Each structure stands twice: as C-alpha cells, then as structure tokens.
Amino acid sequence: MTEDAITFLEKHLLEGEHWYHTLVEDCKDIIVEGEFSWRMTILETYHNLGKRIFQDIPNFTRSQIYGDNIVQRVAESLQRSERTIYYAMKFAEKFPSVDEVPEGKNISWRLVCQKYLTKPKELPSHETATKKATEEYCLCPKCGSEIMPILTKCRCEQEFEIKAENIRRR
Fold first, then answer.
1. For residue 133, how many other CB atoms are within 10 A of its CB?
2. Would you list the DSSP string of 67-103?
3. Is 8 helix (H, G, I), strand (E, B) or coil?
4. pLDDT digits 0-9 by tens, 118-127
5. How confident is the model at residue 128, as a pLDDT?
6. Which of the listed residues 73, 77, 147, 160 has the most CB atoms within 10 Å of its CB?
7. What does pTM read for this prediction?
8. Nearest CA to 57 among 119, 162, 128?
9. Closest of 71, 54, 57, 86 to residue 151, by C-alpha
10. What are the tens digits of pLDDT across the range 31-78?
C-alpha cells in the first residue's frame, strides 16, 4: 500500500470514531470562543478609549482646541492614526455599551468601522464637535461633576444611568 493510501485510510477511520468527532467539535468551539473573546477585547479597548477622550472634551474647549484638532492632538500623543482615534470616539458615541453592537460572534473592529461608523473624511466641524461637548451634560450624583451624556461613569468611579430627564443644557 502507498503512503497516500495509508493516510487516506487512517483519516477515514478516525473520522468514523465518535471520540474523534467530539475532539474536533470541541476544538472548533475553543477556537470560535477564543477568537470572539479576542475581538471583544479589541472592541472594548476602543470603546473605552473613545469614552475616555469624551470625558475630557470640556478641557479641550477651554484650551481652545476644537473639532479636528482634538482628534489630531490625541492621535499624535498616542502615536495612533487620526482615523483610529476618530473611530474610537464615534464608536463610544454611537454605542453607549459594547453589548449593544449587533452581529453576534462575527463582530470585529473592522466590521464595526465599515458598517456602523462614519468615514474619517466626515470629521465633525468645530461647531459640531464643541456644541455637544459644551451644551449637554449630566451631574454625577456622588460628586456633582459635569459628565458627558454618553458616559456611564464619573472620574470618581461612580457609575450611573443616563436618563433623558437628567440631561441638562447650558
């Protein structure tokens, strides 16, 4: 018998075994779950990045840095692309929670950017970027700090739920 014939027979004999079928299915499940966990970690990282930048938008406006300049300045300091920073901010703005992103286990950062976020060339103008940052806010129930409406946690680590009736305008 040739080596190819032996390999062919071994393969088909193994595939007929229940224990081997179970092994293969378990391994596939491990791979799917591991890849999903990795992709979710990436999504959570960019979501947290966007939320964190939004926390300090009022500080940027006080420093006379607006709109595109915020994205550019942060990107430069983090040694990341402006596109990455822009998408992270849009992601946090569009989805208050990572769990709200559709797609199930097929989710990826690339898919979120392509399907749900605006293109980088549509960066907000000075007026749009600062309008929301300076006009709408909520007060932290623990320390009284002004919080952007898309955030669910204050710097004092107090978590709270944003409700429409709690959003204030300047």
1. 20
2. HHHHHHHHHHHHT--HHHHHHHHHHHHH-SSGGG-SS
3. helix
4. 655 554 554 4
5. 53
6. 147
7. 0.60
8. 128
9. 54
10. 999 998 999 999 999 999 999 998 888 887 766 666 557 888 899 999
